[in-house]
């Protein structure tokens, strides 16, 4: 945050200032954190109340606090009616003082990968700050904006949502120069009702663009015409099918399933080699490129940035185990589209391929149908074996109908997979965060490490 006095914040937050004034340069909400010149915002939720930890906050050196009820503690404090809304207003205050240019990203899948791609490109051009982890909701997005200061030239802000109106709120605070909806898929249907509801909620991001901003539209998405009808700013489109301003041609995959392609825009082209596996990442790269082109970044800088795109933890991370098995960790999250992309990737590897899935969450009444579609897609893709764990994945297993089994608990599943993990085999593990499929990945990696240590020990005896 750009340094400011509590007295400057008071009118902006419509707050009462008591206990004196103080200068602050950081904002935080975790009472366990020590923060120099920090302003602590005491949030309330259904199962917690940070006001209960104010003595600890003061003891750890907070410069000031934002509270809903005046505290008897000896510390400068801004008293507000709603501390969560005050956090958003703080972010607005900081955003207005920043000179950075902002890209805001939403979508059902791939938005974190696209965010990292854009950040990788912009870091070549200027000081860039991007959303950390999954800080993309109505608390995380304001906190992200509050981490920025006058040194930053670019901000890359990921916006997520599980209900209508959330993106309108966070996008209004962000005031992006460039806005992207990466795609719409069957994710968070429980909160949006249906795919049209998802598209409408994601579309809120375009209505909060700055007057001279640019809307980046995925021409391959079925809802592209719907969004274009409501966009009032300039539009830049992209397509992996050749139907856009920014397109990919001559797409090829290497032996590790990493794509190479020609990126084309306005009669210019640049050869791109991605370090990320999966043909679906061509789409993500086009989205990132279009966002950066809207900021007048050169194709050369875009190429450099994309070639250094980092692998997101839990997003198709590949590990070659000591026993020769290729293990792919795609446990970051899951929806129908990302499941299809993972299956398509798995099917491209030589040797035996095994799909391991946990439940996809927040699908509401569409839960059974979406899980059945996963099983059907795996069958049509020619996956050699599929194992599943959870509740809804039993429908995937039933439709798949091939080699494999559904398990009611992870320990049984892990026991089976340890027998399957061997040379010339690829195992891909995926599920929503709530299914905790990362535990399966960790167990297989630990088993491989133990096997490796055992083999080394036996060799030493000889």
From TrEMBL:
Taxonomic classification: Bacteria, Pseudomonadati, Pseudomonadota, Gammaproteobacteria, Oceanospirillales
Alphabetized SUPFAM superfamilies for the sequence: MurD-like peptide ligases, catalytic domain, MurD-like peptide ligases, peptide-binding domain, MurE/MurF N-terminal domain
Top-level taxon of origin: Bacteria
Ranges in a coiled coil: none
Gene Ontology molecular-function annotations: ATP binding; UDP-N-acetylmuramoyl-tripeptide-D-alanyl-D-alanine ligase activity; UDP-N-acetylmuramoylalanyl-D-glutamyl-2,6-diaminopimelate-D-alanyl-D-alanine ligase activity
Gene: murF
Pfam families linked: Mur_ligase_C, Mur_ligase_M
Organism: Aliikangiella coralliicola
Function: Involved in cell wall formation. Catalyzes the final step in the synthesis of UDP-N-acetylmuramoyl-pentapeptide, the precursor of murein.
Entry keyword annotation includes ATP-binding: yes
Keyword entries, A-Z: ATP-binding, Cell cycle, Cell division, Cell shape, Cell wall biogenesis/degradation, Cytoplasm, Ligase, Nucleotide-binding, Peptidoglycan synthesis
Catalytic activity: D-alanyl-D-alanine + UDP-N-acetyl-alpha-D-muramoyl-L-alanyl-gamma-D-glutamyl-meso-2,6-diaminopimelate + ATP = UDP-N-acetyl-alpha-D-muramoyl-L-alanyl-gamma-D-glutamyl-meso-2,6-diaminopimeloyl-D-alanyl-D-alanine + ADP + phosphate + H(+)
This protein's name: UDP-N-acetylmuramoyl-tripeptide--D-alanyl-D-alanine ligase
Mur ligase central domain residues: 105-291
Gene Ontology BP annotations: cell division; cell wall organization; peptidoglycan biosynthetic process; regulation of cell shape
GO cellular component: cytoplasm
Domain (Mur ligase C-terminal): residue spans on this chain: 322-433
Pathway: Cell wall biogenesis; peptidoglycan biosynthesis
NCBIfam families: murF
HAMAP family documented for this protein: MurF
């Amino acid at each position: 945050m750009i340094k400011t006095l509590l007295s400057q914040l008071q009118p902006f937050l419509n707050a009462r200032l008591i206990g004196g004034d103080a200068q602050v340069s950081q904002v935080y909400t975790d009472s366990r954190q020590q923060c120099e010149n920090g302003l602590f915002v005491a949030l309330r939720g259904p199962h917690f109340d940070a006001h209960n930890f104010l003595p600890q906050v003061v003891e750890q050196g907070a410069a000031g606090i934002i509270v809903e009820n005046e505290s008897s503690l000896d510390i400068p404090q801004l008293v507000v009616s709603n501390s969560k809304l005050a956090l958003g207003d703080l972010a607005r205050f900081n955003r207005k003082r920043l000179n950075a240019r902002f890209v805001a990203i939403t979508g059902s899948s791939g938005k974190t990968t696209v965010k990292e791609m854009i950040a990788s490109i912009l870091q070549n051009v200027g000081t860039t700050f991007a959303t950390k982890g999954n800080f993309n909701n109505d608390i995380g997005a304001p906190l992200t904006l509050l981490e920025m200061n006058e040194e930053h030239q670019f901000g890359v802000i990921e916006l997520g949502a599980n209900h209508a109106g959330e993106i309108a709120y966070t996008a209004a605070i962000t005031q992006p120069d460039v806005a992207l909806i990466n795609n719409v898929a069957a994710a968070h249907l429980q909160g949006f009702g249906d795919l049209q509801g998802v598209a409408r909620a994601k579309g809120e991001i375009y209505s909060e663009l700055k007057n001279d901003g640019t809307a980046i539209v995925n021409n391959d998405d079925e809802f592209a015409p719907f969004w274009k009808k409501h966009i009032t700013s300039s539009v830049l489109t992209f397509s992996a099918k050749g139907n856009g301003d920014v397109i990919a041609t001559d797409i090829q995959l290497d032996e590790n399933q990493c794509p190479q392609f020609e990126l084309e825009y306005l009669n210019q082209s640049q050869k791109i080699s991605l370090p990320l596996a999966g043909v679906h990442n061509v789409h993500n790269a086009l989205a990132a490129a279009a966002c950066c082109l809207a900021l007048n970044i050169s194709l050369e800088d875009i190429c450099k940035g994309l070639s250094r795109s980092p692998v997101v933890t839990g997003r198709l991370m590949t590990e070659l185990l000591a026993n020769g098995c290729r293990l792919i960790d795609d446990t970051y999250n899951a929806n129908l589209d990302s499941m299809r992309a993972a299956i398509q990737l798995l099917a491209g590897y030589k040797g035996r391929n095994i799909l391991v899935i946990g439940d996809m969450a927040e699908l509401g009444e569409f839960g059974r149908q979406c899980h059945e579609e996963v099983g059907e897609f795996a069958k049509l893709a020619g996956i050699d074996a599929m194992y599943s764990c959870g509740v809804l994945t039993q429908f995937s297993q039933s439709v798949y109908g091939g080699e494999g089994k559904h398990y009611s608990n992870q320990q049984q599943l892990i026991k089976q997979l340890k027998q399957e993990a061997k040379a010339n085999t690829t195992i891909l593990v995926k599920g929503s965060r709530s299914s905790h499929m990362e535990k399966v990945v960790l167990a297989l990696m630990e088993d491989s490490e133990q096997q490796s240590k055992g083999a080394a020990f036996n060799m030493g005896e000889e």
